Amino acid sequence: QAQLVESGGGLVQTGDSLRLACAAPARTTGWYNMAWFRQAPGKEREFVAVIARGGGRTAIADSVKGRFTISSDNAKSTVWLQMNNLQPEDSAVYYCAAGQPGNPARLVSSYDNWGQGTQVTVSS
Length: 124
Prior knowledge:
The chain has 124 residues and is mainly beta. The protein has one helix and eleven strands; from the N terminus they run E-E-E-H-E-E-E-E-E-E-E-E.
């Protein structure tokens, strides 16, 4: 399985921005749908955003629409999650995942390759 490595998390204040990065082995972003999920303590892992293989269509969760954007660079095999106007409820461990095209993009079960996660904490 391709090794996914997230970076860019940290402790910020309400209203700040962060940009998460997910570095993947070469050609991964061209072959797989790439997604971001997050998991807060005591909660289920939830879908945040997905970008189709090759940097095509994107989808964003309603809870972050208008604040978060997902993008990718196939040459660098990297996916980014730009997070603006962060709120305390955005605090979670953020995971990058790679999944087969054609699987339902918003389901955790559609992804079998996960990074180790990066912590995002937003203070009020």
